[in-house]
Amino acid sequence: MSQNAQQAIWLTQDAYDKLKSELDQLSGPGRAEVAAKIAAAREEGDLRENGGYHAAREEQGQQEARIRQLTDMLRRAEIGEPSASADVVAPGVQVTIAFFGDESDTDTFVLGSRELLGLDDAVDSTNVYSPQSPLGAAILGKKKGDSASYEAPNGKAIEVTVIDLQPFQP
């Protein structure tokens, strides 16, 4: 897989629109709101002991980090819809793998991102792995019955076999 394909982020049109809306809110009215909080806190006096000022500056830093993250994600986005069939492991596909060929030791997950698939952590317990993760990168493009291996964080090689593929339906 090419370097660019690994860095691309797969998004549905709906997910793209939600992220774009969040970016527009944060970079427009959100910035103005935080700037107003900082200005109001400055008026209170000594900045060294001004908790409101420091809290507003922290909020501004977090907001700017989120703006950078969203800008990067949208810049690298590839818009598409999940396939109606799942012949190969790709973003938006629900995958079941067996570890070391043992079908009693399996894991089922969706390849993608909770945020990008529009999943809500509070109500949806679907396991999600990134295509950029060691496991995701190892199985990306594999078909049912194909095996792959990846290196775990502890350096151990882990072998997995794709045993089932389903189109993901949130």
Automatic annotation (TrEMBL):
Residues 43-64 are annotated as: Disordered. Keywords: DNA-binding, Elongation factor, Protein biosynthesis, Transcription, Transcription regulation. Residues 85-165 form the Transcription elongation factor GreA/GreB C-terminal domain. InterPro entries: GreA/GreB_C_sf, TF_GreA/GreB_CS, Tscrpt_elong_fac_GreA, Tscrpt_elong_fac_GreA/B, Tscrpt_elong_fac_GreA/B_C, Tscrpt_elong_fac_GreA/B_fam, Tscrpt_elong_fac_GreA/B_N, Tscrpt_elong_fac_GreA/B_N_sf. Residues 9-79 form the Transcription elongation factor GreA/GreB N-terminal domain. The keyword Zinc does not apply. One of its GO terms (molecular function) is translation elongation factor activity. It comes from the Bacteria. Necessary for efficient RNA polymerase transcription elongation past template-encoded arresting sites. The arresting sites in DNA have the property of trapping a certain fraction of elongating RNA polymerases that pass through, resulting in locked ternary complexes. Cleavage of the nascent transcript by cleavage factors such as GreA or GreB allows the resumption of elongation from the new 3'terminus. GreA releases sequences of 2 to 3 nucleotides. NCBIfam families: greA, PRK00226.1-3. This is Transcription elongation factor GreA. It comes from Microlunatus phosphovorus (strain ATCC 700054 / DSM 10555 / JCM 9379 / NBRC 101784 / NCIMB 13414 / VKM Ac-1990 / NM-1).
